[in-house]
Amino acid sequence: MILSNITPNTSDINSQTIQLMHGYWRAANYLSVGQIYLRNNPLLKRPLAKKDIKLMRLGHWGTTPGQNFIYTHLNRIIKKYELDMVYVSGPGHGGPALVGNTYLEGSYSEIYPEITQDEKGLKKLFKQFSFPGGIPSHVSPECPGSFHEGGELGYSLAHSFGAVLDNPNLIATCVVGDGEAETGALATSWHSNKFINPETDGVVLPILHLNGYKIANPALLARIPQEELIKLMEGYGWKPYIVAGDEPLKVHEDMAFALENAIVDIQEIKAKATQTDSKRPVWPMIILKTPKGWTGPKYIDDKPVENHFRSHQVPISDPINNEDHFQQLEKWLRSYQVDQLFDDEGTLKKEYQQLAPKACNRMGMNPHTNGGLLLKDLKLPSVKDFAVKVNSHGDIGPGDTRSAGAFLKEVMKINSDEKNFRLFGPDEILSNRLNEVFETTNRQWNAQTKNTDEFLAPEGRAMEILSEHLCEGWLEGYLLTGRHGLFTSYEAFIHIIDSMFNQHAKWLKVTKELPWRRRLASLNILLSSHVWRQDHNGFTHQDPGFIDHVINKKASIIRVYLPPDANCLLLILKHCLESKHYVNVMVAGKHPSPQWLSMDQAELHCKKGIGIWEWASNDQQDSTDLVMACAGDIPTLETLAAVSILRKEIQEIKIRVINVVDLMKLQSTNEHPHGLSDSDFDALFTKDKPVIFAFHAYPWLIHRLTYKRNNHLNFHVRGYQEEGTITTPFDMTVLNKLDRFHLVQDVLNFIPKSGSQYDYLKEKMKDMLIKHRNYIEEHGIDLPEVKEWKWNL
Amino acid sequence: MILSNITPNTSDINSQTIQLMHGYWRAANYLSVGQIYLRNNPLLKRPLAKKDIKLMRLGHWGTTPGQNFIYTHLNRIIKKYELDMVYVSGPGHGGPALVGNTYLEGSYSEIYPEITQDEKGLKKLFKQFSFPGGIPSHVSPECPGSFHEGGELGYSLAHSFGAVLDNPNLIATCVVGDGEAETGALATSWHSNKFINPETDGVVLPILHLNGYKIANPALLARIPQEELIKLMEGYGWKPYIVAGDEPLKVHEDMAFALENAIVDIQEIKAKATQTDSKRPVWPMIILKTPKGWTGPKYIDDKPVENHFRSHQVPISDPINNEDHFQQLEKWLRSYQVDQLFDDEGTLKKEYQQLAPKACNRMGMNPHTNGGLLLKDLKLPSVKDFAVKVNSHGDIGPGDTRSAGAFLKEVMKINSDEKNFRLFGPDEILSNRLNEVFETTNRQWNAQTKNTDEFLAPEGRAMEILSEHLCEGWLEGYLLTGRHGLFTSYEAFIHIIDSMFNQHAKWLKVTKELPWRRRLASLNILLSSHVWRQDHNGFTHQDPGFIDHVINKKASIIRVYLPPDANCLLLILKHCLESKHYVNVMVAGKHPSPQWLSMDQAELHCKKGIGIWEWASNDQQDSTDLVMACAGDIPTLETLAAVSILRKEIQEIKIRVINVVDLMKLQSTNEHPHGLSDSDFDALFTKDKPVIFAFHAYPWLIHRLTYKRNNHLNFHVRGYQEEGTITTPFDMTVLNKLDRFHLVQDVLNFIPKSGSQYDYLKEKMKDMLIKHRNYIEEHGIDLPEVKEWKWNL
């Protein structure tokens, strides 16, 4: 349904509708309790027996009845207006609700045919929940209709906003838990409404579910005056509707009307948006205040449970050994009057079945939630059109990310009809020198503007807010619903989303193992303003450890690239944008810097991912004295400068230069699919020669990747050692002993050759370091001969 | 000054005061521009020459004049009411402002005597800024009066709240940048006001500085209607005062009155708090709307600069080569009329000097900002009082963290007069089983309460909110101002604060190198609900990689402990609470589990940090066939179970069991101060025997730590391999091949012995794994013989 064409009305809200919805809700609640407790007797056709009860009872009841309530109401409104709606479950553990509801609507059985809509299927549905070999207790990838996992809290709203970008008629109803609402990521996510274009994007309908409690504490937003909460939501730019109570029939009625009101608002905003009204709309949201563990036991062992944090997990803890508990459980289960809801075969009765939407309108079958179904390959231009010309090795290029920016501009241009690519950054797209994208697009922004602003517009392919959480969350939501994108950030501060990366990598791992889940576009992260070039930001901005973090995740999911120059970056970037179902991390420089490979050379090099640079080496077969390896733009620069010195000063030292673009090449084949075989590794690094490895990040990562290799004991790695401050670019390498002068000393120390010219060169290197130190402390800039290095390659 | 005793008045606000403050502000602004641009001619006694200008100009002008403005006004109010106030600079790069102001008030020269308050000192002050060998461009540890580093954005408010806890008469004035305000951490930090006790804690006075722009974008909060912004702040529970404009004299007057209004509110709240009024107060805050780069050049190269993002860094980019730029710079510098502000010697004129507070009232000298000055050792009880009795190895204990909770309860009790210890957790103190603390304290909470609540009170030593960012930020603020604390979290979600940990570790590293900075209490992090015991949460809650992240930081700062049982945890916890200036990470179990060491044994073991468990081993000197090493509670359990099997089934295999408590023992002495010498390492692990290492976290971390050791090639490490779901506790180890049955197979595969009993045992292990799988898929609980294991040690 085109949202602007809806004709809202409330004619269907009457006591019969309410009664039916109430029945449907009871069915969902019953299925929820059943999943947590039962392994047999799923329809309670006979008295509950202890052997019907699971030996281990794991799950989360507290949030579940509220989510069942919401789902039931959304079904009504979807069906009535033929809405295209997805359900995002923010509270951590709503598993029983979403599993139960997708089962009631039929989605579950379509995806898992063994879970039939009858007594036998019900029994399986119950048993598999939170059970070894079964399904998790939260809204996991296994759950139909889910594209947001309720594992770590805080990202539901951001994911919802990512989902509706470029989907103008999609509504993402996002249930925000009042616990989750306390997280930082969620607290800033409310502001996402300033980035949505009401004409070209869809609608996020947040439902803040105030059930009042977290694991063992009240929720903050449930414990401030209502007027404060309303102001907060209005201050965030929303129009809140409040639905509150614990009398089901009354709350059903209020909720139905609140949703109708929201539909009225949405229709009006959408209708206006097609005119020239570009004013930022105030979107509706709902505050739903119902008891935690609603309809569950009110007291257990004389302690309040319903409307208390004690209903968070499994309220009745010991129904097998404790007779009171056992009786309470049976009473609770029977309170839903299951025999009125399901027929004798265990199938939901017809009058309730017809409440659910049909086919892809069912939230469990909405294709946006299995984004690979909708994914179209990105059209990608030839990288040759953006190649940096390299007349001789060491020519200065325009800045590697600058070339990437030109490429991305073209990507945006040729995919502009599909509207399926976006660039995300925390106010760092310009700082990371991807400027050229703004020649073809703008930053999407729907807050106020001034005529001195640059590149802001209600619609644009770039999304910028100073929140790494939101950039990452929006992008994840965009990818999970079948589109493409790139996140660019400063290298150090990408750690802000370490945990979000974890969750996404886990989602990719699990969905890869589910046949019905289709592959998504990769999560692509381009890091610049990296550790070696924090000239004006200093120590706080220096941390190259994100890649250490990344490679702890499954090898089948993660990829790490360190392109040494612009042409390599272009090739790698294209490769990442083409890839599916990975997390690709690229680290690249942004400053004008030496370029090493023509596009043709770069193509060969990147294809291999690692290789000998013969033009820089002077060894022949079997004559190698030593290998100088490098990974990353600055380490490559310093390595080649060191080689320059050595080849000029002592030609007899035979050096092999190896550059690593694809970091995972270093691992064994059986640890990472990209890994080199041992023989290939030996062919590159030799079995017994010293290897001086200049590395972009923390040095021990190279040891971790290569410890099984034959020649590993000869590896000497230089990298970032947590030494740095505001200083010159070259001095950063000196502080961490990764610079050319230290590298030459390393070579002289590690090869088994000596002589007067060796001693002379060692002394010269020491002198250069002193000269460097004195010069920068006097002038504040690098030695001219370092800045304008004479290459001898 | 006792805040409730203040008698507010505005009698001093007149045109003379305003004019003087305006002069002081100009002086601070001049010093700021001087720091960014000048290396000579600091008083402009002669015409500006190109050689006076730094060759490299790095720094951030945009935020600076606003912060100078605020600092000037705070000086007035501090002096007038004798306030104890600290200044927290939220915007990233206010360095020139804070350095300049602490110089003007004299603090800077007291700490750095070579930076004198005369022309010579001024020249040094200017040159050192953002210069190799000098000081960073942001409010770094080198800056007097700073305890919050403006590196990564988002933590200023959280740090401020941490600072005022238990400091009832301290005011932390927190300048929140409008860029920073977009971050998740900051967005939720506003809610901290619900946790402050107006009687026993101090005051956070936020000043939201809307200068309108970030690096290259407008700031969101500057682009919403003012009424929305006011509602937002009121919704967060604050009373906002708005000061806006660009006419300095008018804004000075408005700001002076706004601060007086804030003082009136603070005095009233404080006065009421001493009575029985426990209602949560609405604290004042100020929204200051002034142009970014205020008083700087309005246009450069015909582009707007003042009140635009172009003033973010160095507004005039090329004053040495571009004649227009050069002239604009001189005009800008002279616009402050430096000769009216400083005397001929370069000393601030008397009439301005007297505007600054004196001695420790100066914000640059406030002892809270150099917390070690105020730090008192924590009183710690004997751990023996909390020892778990171990009659025989393998006795089941009450849960390791439960014992830690009993110990922490006592810590709280005996330090209750000093009020210098707090426990922080994201709603996980109970879930991590530290229950007993609530027998002596409560969770501090000043939002609404109900009579069914538990352990909530206006004052308490525990702080809980579902935001790892706030827990960490509050604790950091508490530590940085000279107190002690502990953060307890789920292991997986501690990654949420990876980047905060980075920044704090960097702060510790740099302050350690500054002689005037005193040592702080360590940042102690106790992780439980760890990767191996996520029975009901599953895969999303499994990530043991925080320790990989931690050990990338300086070895002199970081410590990692994996106590295998309750007595070891108690000893380690005490050790960490006694220590200074580290980040200590402890990972411990919470479930009832086997206990290995009596308190006496544990004491010996923890003192060494690593050791042979002779009671579990059956090797003699030189007879060792194989080493079984373990680190972490679950790996220790599985290792000892495997040893039990082996010692029962094939006595001839001589096994040495090593347990590692202090992970950094594995590294070399020259890499970590705790590291074992190579000979000590060899004495433990042998030089040539197979080592089967069962490890709590990702296995390759052990390789990373030991790759230089003699016997490293014989290390076979089992750990978490990103395999897991909802399943039984034992099955988690099976999925990752860390369980006893796989470990026994490992042993049989790696020792060079064979025979029929070996083949028999291999088959038996395989059978056990099949039996296990069948049993859990039928019953959903672990095999009885695994749960009630018969130890044979």
UniProtKB/TrEMBL annotation, chains A, B:
Pfam families for this protein: XFP, XFP_C, XFP_N
Domain Xylulose 5-phosphate/Fructose 6-phosphate phosphoketolase N-terminal: 14-373
Keyword Lyase in record: yes
Keywords: Lyase, Thiamine pyrophosphate
Enzyme kind, highest EC tier: lyase
Gene Ontology MF: a single term: aldehyde-lyase activity
Gene3D superfamilies, per the entry: 3.40.50.920, 3.40.50.970
InterPro entries for this protein: Phosphoketolase (IPR023962), THDP-binding (IPR029061), Transketo_C/PFOR_II (IPR009014), Xul5P/Fru6P_PKetolase (IPR005593), Xul5P/Fru6P_PKetolase_C (IPR018969), Xul5P/Fru6P_PKetolase_CS (IPR019790), Xul5P/Fru6P_PKetolase_N (IPR018970), Xul5P/Fru6P_PKetolase_ThDP_BS (IPR019789)
UniProt-listed Enzyme Commission number(s): 4.1.2.-
Cofactor: thiamine diphosphate
GO biological process terms, semicolon-separated: carbohydrate metabolic process
Domain Xylulose 5-phosphate/Fructose 6-phosphate phosphoketolase C-terminal residues, every copy: 590-791
Domain of life: Bacteria
Recorded family membership: Belongs to the XFP family.
Entry protein name: Probable phosphoketolase
Organism for this UniProt entry: Zunongwangia atlantica 22II14-10F7
